[in-house]
Fold each of these.
Amino acid sequence: MTKKLWFQAGVGILLALLILKYFMEINWIFAPLLIIAKTIFVPLLLGAVLFYVTEPLQRFLEKRKIPRWGSILAILISVAAVVWLFISIIGPPVINQVNNLVKSAPYIAKEITIQSENLLDVLQHREDFPEQLNDMIDKAVNSVQSIAVVFGKLIVQFFQSVFQTAFTLILVPFFFIFLLKDHEKFAPFIYNFFSGKRQVWVKKTLHDINTVLRTYIQGQLLISLILAAIMFIGYLIIGLDYSLLLVIFAFFMNVIPFIGPWIAFAPALIIAFLDPDPQMVIWVCIITLVAQQTDSNLITPNIMGKTLDIHPLTVITVILAAGNIAGFLGILLSIPAYAVGKVILKNIYDRRKEIKLAATKNV
C-alpha cells in the first residue's frame, strides 16, 4: 500500500498541513521573511506580467541580430511611450469621469433606491404576485443597491491604493529588467541540481510551466483588450455615460475568465438603468452579448486554443474557492496557479508511467 500513488500523495498532504500548522504557531520567527515576501510579491508579479507581454517583442528583435541590451532598451522605450500616451491621452478624461462618478454617487444610489422601490411597490400590489417571487425581487433590489454603493467605493479605493503603493511600484522596473536580461538562466539554475532522466523531467516540467504561463498571460490580456475595444466602440455609439471608465474597469475584470465579464457588466447595466432613455439598457445588453459571443466563438478558441484545457465548470469552482480564501488577489491568481499545478501533476503521472513501463520491459 505504501507504494500506491494515492497513499504517497495523502502522506505528503498531511505532512504539508503539519508543517503549515507549526509554521503558523511560530510565525514570529518568520515574520520578517513574510514582510519581505509581501513587499516584493506585487512588484515581482507585475514585472513578470510585463515580461510575458513584451517577451514576443524581445524574441522578434533578437532574431534580427539585435543584442540583448539593445532589445531591452527598445522595450523600455516602448513601455515608457505607451505609459506616457495612456497618461496624456486617456488620463485626463478618466480622472474627469472618476470625479463626476464620485460626485454623482449619492444621486445614483438614491435613484436606484427610488426606482427599485417603485418597481417593487407596483409588483406587490398585483394579486397574482407570488410571495416567494416577492422575496426574491426584494433581495435582488438590495443586491443592486449594494453593488452600486460598493462600485463607487471600489473606484475611490482603487485610486487611493495606487498612490499608497506607488513606492512599491518603483521595484517593478528592476524585476522587469532582470527578467528581460537573465530569464534563460532561471530554468538551468534549477534543473542543474539534478542529473540523468530526473534532470530531463525537471527541464520538461519547467518548459511546460513557462508555456502555460506565457499562453495564459498573453492570451488573457489580448482577449481583454479586444473585448474592451468592442465594448468601447459600442458604448460610444449608444452614448453611455462613463463609457471610458466602464471600459477600463471591464478590461481588468475580463482578465478573470468567465466570471470577469459578468462583473464588468453589472456597473454598465446600473448606469444604463439611470439613463433617461429606457432603451439604453437594451443596447448595453446587446453590446455585452455581441462581445461575449465574439469572445467565446472567435477570440478565445483562436488565441488560447487548447493549451490550458480547463473545463469552464472547473474554472468557476476554482475562482469562487480562491476568492473566499484569498480575496481578489486569489481570484486573479487562481487559474494560472491551477494550470501550473495541473502541468506538474500531469508530468508526474507521465513520469510514473514511464518508470512502470521500463520496469515491465526489464521483467
Amino acid sequence: STGVAGAASNPFSDVPQDSWAYDAVATLAADGVIDGFLDGTYQGNKTMTRYEMAQIVARAMAKEDLQKADKAIVD
C-alpha cells in the first residue's frame, strides 16, 4: 500500500513511532487492510496464522485503487 505514512495515525499501542515497522503498520491500518486485537495492540511479534494472512491479502486485493501490476505481484 502506498501513501503518506507520516500522516497515517497509528492505532496500536505496541507499535512505537521509532519502530522499523511503524510507517507500514500505520498505513495499512489506515487503509483498512490490517486490524489489531481488541486490546488495542497489533502483536507484531506473534506468529500470524494462515487465516490472518489470507484475510490481509483478500483485503489488499479488494482495494479499488490497487494497481494491476501490484495485483500481479501478489498473484
Amino acid sequence: MTTDMMKAVRQHEFGGPEVLRYEDAPTPELKAGEVLVRVHAIGLNPPDWYLRDGYKTLPPEWRPQVTFPLILGTDISGVIEAVADDVQRYSVGDEVYSMVRFPSGLAGGSGAYAEFVSVLASEIAHKPSSIDHVHAAAAPMSLLTAWQFMVARGHEEQNPLQAQQHVPVPLEGKTVLVNGAAGGVGHFAVQIAKWKGAHVIAVASGEHETFLRELGADEFIDYTKTPPEEVVHDVDLVLDTLGGPSTGRFLRTLKRGGALFPVFPLGFSGGEEAATQGFTVSATQVRSNGAQLEEVGRLLDDGTIRVAIDSEFPLHDAHKAHERAAQGHIRGKIALTLRDSHRLLKDTS
C-alpha cells in the first residue's frame, strides 16, 4: 500500500517548544466539501501554544481530550491542490487563505503546521491578490477575532460564560480604547475602529507608539509609564485583547452605557459592578467563516487594513517561532514559511 506523505510539525506529548517535531506525516485525505491546500505560509496564534502545553490556562474540566500525535495551527495561505467533487466555488490552482477548523479542531489540532491541509470550502476565501502568502496567513484568526467582536459576530454560538449573545456596538463617532494594541488582534482592532469612524486610544509599550499612530491611533498610552485606567475617562468601548482577571480595571474608564469586550474573559469578576454602573461586559469566541474572510480580504486588498509581521521562521523551526512568542511584546504576527519544503514524499508500506 502506498501512502502520500508530507512534512509537518507534530507533537507527541504536551510541553514547551521543544516538543514540536519536524517529521513525515500522512497527507490529509480529501473528504466531501473540502479542498486540499498546498500551504505556503502559516500564521501563529495563542491557541497554538495553549494546545501545545495542554491548555493549562483552562480549568481542568474544560480541557479537551487530546489524541497524539497532533498538528498545531489554524491559519494558512496557499494554493488549492485538489477539490472534492461537490465543491463548485473553487478550483485547483486558486490562491486561498483560511482559519482552519476553529474551534472544532481544539482537541486534536487543526493541522496547519504542514505542507498540506484539508479545509472545508466554507472556511476558505480567495487570498487578497495585493498581499503575499505570509501576510495573508498572518491575518485570519486575529482579524476575524477583531471583526467578530467589533463589527459582525458571524455565528450564533452562545458564549457559555454569559447569559446574553455578544453584540458588537456602533463605532462611528465613538471613543474606543484598545489594550494590547500592538499585538495580533490589537493592531487590527485599531485599524477597524479607525475605519469605522471612531476616535482610537491605543495602549501598548512605548516602542510601539510610532507604529500604532501610523495605523490610525489618535492617542497613545505607554502602559509601562501610565496605567490607562488612571488617566482615561468617558470611553464608549474598551477592547481588551489581553483580558483575564485584570480586565475589570477598565470599567473605570467607561462612560455610563459603555462596553468592555475582553478577548480572554476567564477570570473577570466585576459583573455586578458593571451592571450597577450600566456597563456591558461581553465576549465571543472567534469561529471560522470563509464569507467573512472574503469581506475583510477586500479591505486587505485595498490597503484599508494592513498586516504587520513581527518575524518569520521556516516550518522546520516552528519551535523557534514558539520561543519568540514566549518572549512577548509581539508587534503584529509571527509567521511560518514553507518556501523550501514543497515536496510530496512517498512512503510504501
Amino acid sequence: MAESTSKLTNFKILVFNVYRTLMPLLSRYPSAKWSCADILKEFESVEKEIQIVQLDLLYTDVLAKAHEVLEKHLDNLYGKPIPDISDVYVVFSNSIKNWFIFSDSSEALHNLAKYYKLVVLSNVDHTSFAHTHAKLSTGDPSAVSSPLYACPEPNPNDYWFSQKTEGSQSSFSLILMVQDVHSYKPALPGFLTALDIIQKDLLDTSTLKDMKEKVLSSTEFVS
C-alpha cells in the first residue's frame, strides 16, 4: 500500500465545526421505540430542512423549530396529546450556553494553536457561541459569555478575529457564524467565504487556490 502524502504538518489552517447537537427529547416519550441514534438522525434531517427553507433564522430559532417539529411527529406516532409547551422550545433553543465541552478540548486547542491558525465555521449564532468560546478559551466548564469572548459590538474589523481582543485567551484566529457567511452548512457559500477570508486576512497568499477548486468540485456540498 502506498504511503499517504497527506500529513497534518502539511497544513497551516485547521477549520472546526465545534458542535454536534444532542436531543434530550425522548425522555418525554417513554413508549417511543426510537433509539438515541434514531432521534439524532431525525433531528439532523429536520434541522437541515429548516435551514434550507428559512435561511435567515438564527440557530437558536432553528433549534426551537426543530424541537417543535420532532415533538409533534412523536406525538402523532405515539398518541400523546400536544400540550401548549412553547416555553420548552425556547428553553431548548437557549440551552447552548449550558452545553458541556470535553475535558481535554481547551488544552488540545491551545496546543494546536501553537502550530496552526484555528478557524471556527459553525451554524450557531454569535450570541450562543460566545458562551462556548469562553469555555474553550479558559478551560472552565462553567464559564459564560463576557466581552473577552463575544463578538465585538461595534466590531472594528470586518469579521471576528478573536485573538485581537486584548486579554483574550482564545485559541481561534477567526470565528465565522451564519450571520457572517449568510449560509448554513453544508451549503457551499459559507465554505467559499471562509476560504476567501482566510486567504485575505490569515495567509495573504494564493495557497488556497487548490483548496477552492476541490471545494467547488466536491459532491458533498449542496447549493
